[in-house]
Amino acid sequence: MANLQLKDIRKSFGAVEVIKGVSLEIESGEFMVFVGPSGCGKSTLLRLVAGLEDITSGELKFDGQVVNALTPSKRGIAMVFQSYALYPHMTVYENMAFGMTLEKGHSKEEIRQRVERAADMLQIREYLGRLPKQLSGGQRQRVAIGRAITRDPRVFLFDEPLSNLDAALRVATRIEIAKLHESMHNTTMIYVTHDQVEAMTLADRICVLRDGLVEQVGTPMELYERPDSMFVAGFIGSPKMNFISGKLAENFNAPTVGVRGEHLVVKPSDGVWSGSVIHSENLGSDSYIYVDIGTDEPVVVREDGGKKHQSGEQVQIAPMDAALVHRFDNAGKPIR
Amino acid sequence: MDATIDIWKVTKTTLFYLLVTAIVVIAIFPFYYAILTSFKSGTDLFRINYWPTSFSLANYQQVFTQGAFPRNLLNSVFVASVTVILALFLAVTASFALSRVRFRGRGILLMTILAVSMFPQIAVLAGLFEVIRFLGIYNTPWALIFSYTIFTLPFTVWVLTTFMRDLPVEIEEAAIVDGASPWVIITRVFMPLMWPALVTTGLLAFIAAWNEFLFALTFTVSNQTRTVPVAIALLSGGSQYEIPWGIIMAASVVVTVPLVVLVLIFQRKIVSGLTAGGVKG
Amino acid sequence: MRQRAVAARWFLLPMMIALAVVAGWPLARSIYFSFTDVTLNDLYGAEWVGFANYLQIRTLESGRVIYRGVLADPAWWNAVWNTVRFAFWSVLWETILGMIVALVLNAEFRGRGIVRAAILIPWAIPTIVSARMWSWMLNDQFGILNDLGMRLGLLSAPVAWTASPDTAMLAVLVVDIWKTTPFMALLILAGLQMIPRDIYEAARIDGVHPIKQFWAITLPLVRPALMVAIIFRVLDALRIFDLIYVLTPNSAATKTMSVLAQENLFQFNNFAEGSAQSTLLFLLIALFTIVYIWLGRVNFDAGDR
């Protein structure tokens, strides 16, 4: 358990600056998610926290102590990698125990207890004698998490741990990680993903990164309800927020407005915008209607499942509530 | 119509298998003939046979009882083994640094190592002779172990570097997070993953050391310190007509059979090792 | 990560010291010796003589000009010619035959494993052993090859293959080609196996004749691997020593640069001249090494850290 302070952290590879001054505080026991499109620097930032890359400038503190020059193990971190990164020649038990055997002063008995406790938490006790190649992808990722738990870290790092799993396992493991956080509520966790669903479902707070800079930090609902920029507004939430600009936005007194599909309704008349239905998708629980109102991309409207619209049908749409319309200036900043 | 196609096909297959047979026969006939000769003795030796006609172990008996051949064999085993162990030991750590750590001048260093492996041995012969005299190891196995490093070390470094480069980065990072020092990463994480590569490179280096001739000829002068290639090269009688062919062939078979057996056992690995050293770069 | 760079330096140090002691220093000393009047018995009393070992031009009082040194020595130029001749013909035939063997091994047929195992045998046999095996087979009186040649009517009388100046080089070439073609074949085979099979399938669908396929698809695609293998072999052929030393001892028709230099250094007590000769060979091979690295376009920093 540790609180982290990042002070104007920068990282360059040669002449290219990848992290351009990130300042951030992470509370002890918090689950922080770094999210952003690929190339935004989120993985690099995680590796800087881990100590796998050197910080070019700035200060990284764990509990007030500067750790810039410390090795990953001295920082007391543990990390779960995208490709699991298990040692292929060691059994599950040896994989989980390896870190502790390298630290001095742990008796065999102590190591065994710690490994078994972690194995029980993840229900992998029966696999302890197996080699990684004898396990499925989901099991391997559980072992990788177990290896991290065994080390009893101050900070627990995840680098896109779900992206190598198939869709069903991804949801199951996501829930597993959420439960893990509940049971280890003292341990600070940082989780990197490009998937906003993972970010929304797991995070206490989300840090949205873009081009090596922090775009916004906040709880999932803060980001959803009060995005600090068009970028965050577009990145958080599914389907993506609709942006309407120019003449079509004049009613709202802003160059651009954004409305989420779930905040729009189809009306027979008296709508704010009108257009023709291009396509509708029925997912069972929801249906998405794509309406061409004259914007570059069609506007998406979420309706309850089962509602049907014919392509070419003329409809009118409107926000459910004026308060749910986000107004942005020309720089993409919100007008509040 | 179908019949003509069949005839063409049969001819093609026949020609192909004739070619295959020719390749196999040419490849193994000299060795076969050496074995055949090694079992002949006396005047049988000078009768030309294509198939085994007589069987005598006299040549082998002589090889192992007369002269210093058993001693030469021991020398070869000792020199080649120690050379390989030394080269692997130096190469494993060096290739970790060369394949895994970014530092300035790495490209130049790799280039230099590659260049050394292309050295003509004759170019360093005079200088090596001086160093070996200076170290006082002239005419001992250590002179050969010392000088063989010039070709075994660059080769092992090169092959192990290409191999280590392909090991996943994340496994190493997981080890770093687990608190492993570079030395622990090499010995406890990479070495177990690399042992097939170590066996292959070790074997190739062993063969190279086992077969070496120029240094062995130059840096050893007595029967007791020579290795088998030199011993076999210098086996001769009083004149051209007294060359003990039977004994030479027996000695040749003795030094070759272990190599051939090893090569056949490890053939897949050897092929990949050779091509890693040669083509991949 | 800084500790890694420090550790890397320590890891490299033993290897670099070893290479400096066994390669760098001896090479420098050999080159230095070539500019002195050093002898085998007195390595430390050497005096600097400049280029005298290479070429020395003196005008006698009578007005006659005398050229001395390695570059004015016909035996040296004979060795250079032998070396180049040997390298050219051996590599040419090894390439052609290696390509044939590689194409055979690249085809799928029953018994492929046996062929591959069989061609590894010449490669595994020590050069000295193969030299002696072949000199027995090439023996003028009791050699099986003369016998075979006469039975098949190819030869009218036995030939002293290794002793006769006319055939000595041929004998050396045959043995070297026999021994080294497998290596070439394996390198070419590795190149062939990197060519995706679907290219051939596409060519078959387009109705390209197999021979055309070889020239239009196989050869261009295997060329990088082939070029590297060829240069590799040329470098090896240029330094040939053991095969010639054992198969055709003391034959002027086959004496190469390495053999001549070794004899001068350690048998004829011409240490300084031998050093000059080995330095010249080194320069020749250095030139080819540069070509190799340039042609190989060795990419040292691809895909690693």
UniProtKB/TrEMBL annotation, chain A:
List the molecular function annotations (GO) for this entry.
Answer: ABC-type maltose transporter activity; ATP binding; ATP hydrolysis activity
* SMART domains according to UniProt: AAA
Keyword Methyltransferase among record annotations? no
Question: What SUPFAM superfamilies does this protein map onto?
Answer: MOP-like, P-loop containing nucleoside triphosphate hydrolases
Domain of life the protein comes from = Bacteria
What residue stretches are annotated with the ABC transporter domain? 4-236
The record's subcellular location field reads: Cell inner membrane
Membrane topology (UniProt): Peripheral membrane protein
Q: InterPro entries, from UniProt? A: AAA+_ATPase, ABC_transporter-like_ATP-bd, ABC_transporter-like_CS, ABC_transpr_MalK-like, ABC_transpr_MalK/UgpC-like, Mo/tungstate-bd_C_term_dom, NA-bd_OB-fold, P-loop_NTPase
Q: Name one GO cellular component term.
A: ATP-binding cassette (ABC) transporter complex, substrate-binding subunit-containing
What keywords are assigned to this protein? ATP-binding, Nucleotide-binding, Transport
One Pfam match: ABC_tran
Give the protein family.
Belongs to the ABC transporter superfamily.
Give the protein name, as stated in the record: Glycerol-3-phosphate ABC transporter ATPase
Q: Which organism is the protein's source?
A: Devosia geojensis
Name the lineage: Bacteria, Pseudomonadati, Pseudomonadota, Alphaproteobacteria, Hyphomicrobiales
UniProtKB/TrEMBL annotation, chain B:
Keyword Membrane in record: yes
| Keyword Transmembrane (UniProt) | yes
Q: Which GO terms describe its biological process?
A: transmembrane transport
Q: Which residues cross the membrane?
A: 15-35, 73-96, 108-129, 141-164, 185-210, 243-266
Its cellular-component GO annotations read:
plasma membrane
Q: Name one Pfam family in it.
A: BPD_transp_1
Listed A to Z, the keywords are: Cell membrane, Membrane, Transmembrane, Transmembrane helix, Transport
Domain spans labelled ABC transmembrane type-1: 73-266
Location(s) in or outside the cell: Cell membrane
Q: How does it sit in the membrane?
A: Multi-pass membrane protein
- Gene3D superfamilies found in the cross-reference section: MetI-like
| Major localisation | membrane
Note the PANTHER family from the entry. Answer: INNER MEMBRANE ABC TRANSPORTER PERMEASE PROTEIN YCJP, MALTOSE TRANSPORT SYSTEM PERMEASE-RELATED
* Recorded family membership: Belongs to the binding-protein-dependent transport system permease family.
Q: What is this protein called?
A: Sugar ABC transporter permease
Write down the species. Answer: Devosia geojensis
